[in-house]
Amino acid sequence: MHDPMAPIRAEVMAQPEGERVEYALDLLSYYLAPLPAFYEGCADMGLTLANAELRMLHAMDAKRGRYVSLDALLSARCLDVTSDDWPSPDRVVSGVAMIRRQLERLRLPVEITTWRGVGYCLEAPNTFRFEDGVVPQVAAPAVLT
Questions:
Q1: What letter does residue 92 receive in the DSSP assignment?
Q2: Range of the domain at 60
Q3: Is 1 domain-assigned?
């Protein structure tokens, strides 16, 4: 029988003994639905993502500048699904592709890098917050006359 929690359990147990509880609590915070301000800000910017992708985006943004494991992103994605019904991690890959397309469409100053087989890392300027709901204006190139 496949235990979908085995990778997450292993991730927690790999931490130093005194840090396991705090690490597990931090993981749980990534699996919870994003705060309403995050959803509202994304909607105000015009991000048209399903809840599963928004939860993945939130999990990556919460660990901005650090890699988020495939297992953590799958858990965030599937918050509203019983673990027996979770899809394969391929859904994380396709979800990140959808998120990237939306970020590029809006020309947001956000980049998601891949560490193949490990996870994804979201990078953005410190001044950019999804909760603000504002698409930064890109300066127009100078016109030479």
A1: H
A2: 6-132
A3: no
Q: Tell me, what's the pLDDT at 1?
A: 55
CA distance 98 to 87: 17
At 81-100, the pLDDT tens digits run 666 665 567 788 999 999 99
Residue 117 clears pLDDT 90, i.e. is over it: no
- Structural domains in the chain (count): 1
For residue 122, list its beta bridge partners. Answer: 112
H or E stretch covering 113? strand 111-115
Please state the rounded mean pLDDT for residues 47-68: 93
Residue 58 is part of a domain; what is its CATH number? 1.10.10.10
By CB atoms closer than 10 A (0-12, 13-18, 19+), residue 90 is exposed
DSSP state for residue 137 in the 8-state scheme? P
Whether residue 139 is contained in a domain is answered as: no
Cα angle 134, 136, 137; round to 5: 130
